[in-house]
Write a structure and sequence with these properties.
Layout lengths: L3 E2 L6 H9 L6 H6 L5 E4 L2 H12 L14 H10 L3 E6 L2 E6 L5
Parallel strand pairs: 1-3
Antiparallel strand pairs: 2-4, 3-4
Helix pairs in contact: 3-4
Length: 101
Amino acid sequence: MSNTFHATPYNLDAALFKACGINQSNLNTWLDKIDEPTIAEGYLKEAATELFYDCYLHSIPESIRYYVDYDSFARDCELGGDLTEFDFNNSTYTCTNASGV
């Protein structure tokens, strides 16, 4: 479920706004939530794994940590709207807290 956008150095900002669905009608919504979503270069599974480590790993006994299915967790995060992966200018990015937008 990845969207691909190609941009030249002259229109990178406009293309990134388009990739994120930002336009004049919803710009205020984005600005109101500016601290919530984060866009980082990397794949959805990497972001989901980091999220899991930060939020849940401390509550899981060390003896079963190796059995966590990070692929399934990443899929659930994507289906729930919490993480969204997209391609922009030949790089892959993940938007975290995507459901807040």
